[in-house]
Amino acid sequence: MKLKPKPTRPRSLSRVLLSGAQIRRRVRTLAAEIKAVYGEEEFTLISLINGAVMFTSDLMREIDNPVRLDCIRVSSYGANTISIGTPQLISSLTLDIRRRHVLVIDDILDTGKTLQFVTKLIRRHRPASLRTCVLLDKKARRQVAIEADFVGFSIPDEFVVGYGLDFAERYRNLPCIGVLRPELQHA
To answer: Which of 31, 120, 148, 166 is the least buried, fewest Cβ under 10 Å from its Cβ?
Structure first.
């Protein structure tokens, strides 16, 4: 049986913004930046799932510090291409983070509402420190004053999917990040 070569651009994308190779290189660099801040100390990763699951997994493998992992589930888009407004907490923390160093990991920072919502929630638990790391930063859509401590890539104001990012729970499995074709942007 002869295998077909993988297409350079998945059919669901109008264009690729970041290839799998570009993402892998930047994740390694981000891990080094994070390591430089935390030194040898233990810290707790809090991943915003489902979107940040791939990014968190790859980033964790590049960090040799002792780390603990917890996940928060927040809904901010539903089956839309624009934010639904106020983020909704679906599932909260299970670990005790009081007096612990915490790094929140999210897939994309656009309006800033989700990251602001989550950091306020985490601060109530009184961590020793709180930092944020996002794979993508879409500054053109910012509605609240918040910036991430660690940023993978700045991207233009386009609706992107792949590498964990979705539209209506689809396209998370793409190995790259790209612009979803307009005709597919409906549930």
So the answer is: 120
